[in-house]
């Protein structure tokens, strides 16, 4: 079935709405997932937007920030103590992978027992590793999670996971891209990659209930989300138009970005299962943060589906005027 953005945006270059005031968006500028926001800003948003380094925590630490983006683990961590947060749009769903060294006797997931796995503790990276390895009966006590750094392109620093894998300091890497791909390239024919569809990072935008209740601010956010819908459509259907710019934005190279593109589902939506996913995942976040997991009704309040609906209406009305 044709995506709504394909119906409403075909051949359309700029969202034809009145000029908007300045909007401030906080993103982790060292991950690939933020790059649709750049294309939305530069190609489709008819207003001024500032994209700064940060994320969902910025919404609480800096009241000038209107939107923040992170994975669902960080969203849960912040929402536990800031119940005014609202997630309004998923911009990327990323199916993490594990790369391991066959020289360490790893041919299947079960062989990771007793091994050292590079991952970021208390993040979607570690949660992914735990979730995937649990499917073959491994618990966190069966392997060691080793902290390190991400790498966006060669040469990778000595403290980054690809370099650690190459010199044998770790036996595998489990996290977001492109560190997994770079790890595979670092060890060449020795690499074995485990693909999966059990877990996907849900990287999305959040704002606050107060900003959604402010008519002027809500109008700005709706306009930017509408621009993101268009940007996501290009990422999904014609990536050659944006891959070089997106790669440059995170200081990687387009060839590497193309390699990991299929791991990403570039989408602008509110997943129907997002509450179910967060309900299960919050058990992990709550243990890490030493609190009680949040109940379903609490997590349902976190999800706002009205803003995307308003953005799609804006797209439709704009298309009718053309």
Structure write-up:
This protein is of the alpha/beta class and 322 residues long. The chain has 2 domains: 4-93 and 201-321, D-Maltodextrin-Binding Protein, domain 2 (3-Layer(aba) Sandwich), CATH 3.40.190.10; 97-194, Periplasmic binding protein-like II (D-Maltodextrin-Binding Protein, domain 2). The protein is 42% helix and 19% strand. It is built from 14 helices and 11 strands. The strands form 2 sheets. A 6-stranded mixed sheet has the order 2-1-3-10-4-11. A 5-stranded mixed sheet has the order 7-6-8-5-9, with helices on both faces. Strand 6 (116-118), helix 5 (124-134) and strand 7 form a beta-alpha-beta unit. Helix 6 runs parallel beside helix 7 (179-187). The radius of gyration is 20 Å and the shape is globular. Keywords: Signal. It comes from Xylaria multiplex. This is SsuA/THI5-like domain-containing protein. Residues 1-22 form the signal peptide. InterPro entries: SsuA/THI5.
């Amino acid at each position: 079935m044709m995506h709504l953005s394909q119906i409403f945006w075909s051949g359309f270059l700029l969202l034809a709405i009145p000029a908007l005031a300045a909007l401030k968006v906080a993103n982790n500028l060292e991950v690939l997932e933020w790059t649709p926001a750049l294309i939305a800003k530069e190609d489709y948003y008819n207003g001024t937007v500032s994209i700064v380094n940060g994320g969902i925590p910025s919404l609480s630490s800096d009241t000038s920030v209107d939107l923040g983006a992170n994975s669902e683990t960080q969203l849960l961590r912040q929402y536990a103590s800031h119940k005014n947060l609202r997630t309004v749009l998923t911009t990327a769903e990323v199916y993490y992978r594990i790369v391991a060294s066959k020289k360490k006797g790893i041919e299947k997931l079960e062989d990771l027992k007793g091994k050292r796995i590079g991952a970021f503790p208390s993040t979607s990276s570690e949660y992914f590793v735990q979730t995937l390895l649990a499917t073959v009966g491994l618990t966190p006590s069966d392997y060691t999670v080793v902290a390190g750094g991400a790498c966006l392109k060669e040469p990778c620093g000595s403290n980054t996971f690809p370099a650690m894998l190459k010199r044998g300091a770790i036996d595998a890497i489990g996290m977001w891209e492109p560190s997994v791909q770079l790890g595979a390239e670092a060890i060449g024919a020795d690499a074995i990659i485990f693909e999966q569809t059990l877990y996907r990072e849900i990287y999305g935008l959040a704002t606050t209930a107060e900003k959604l209740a402010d008519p002027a601010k809500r109008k700005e956010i709706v306009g930017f989300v509408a621009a993101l819908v268009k940007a996501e459509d290009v990422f999904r259907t014609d990536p050659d138009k944006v891959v070089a710019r997106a790669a440059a934005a995170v200081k990687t190279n387009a060839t590497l970005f193309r390699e990991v593109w299929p791991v990403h589902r570039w989408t602008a939506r509110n997943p129907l299962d997002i509450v179910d996913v967060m309900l299960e995942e919050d058990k992990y976040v709550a243990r890490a943060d030493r609190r009680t997991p949040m109940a379903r009704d609490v997590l349902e309040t976190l999800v706002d589906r009205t803003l995307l609906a308003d953005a799609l209406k804006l797209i439709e009305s704009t298309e009718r005027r053309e």
